[in-house]
Amino acid sequence: MKSIRKIRAVWNKRVIAESPENETLVVEGYRYFPPHALREEYFKESDHTSVCKWKGTSLYKHLVVDGRILHDGAWYYPDPKPDAAEVKGYFAFWRGVQVGPV
Question: Phi and psi of 79, rounded to 5°?
Answer without folding.
Answer: -145, 70
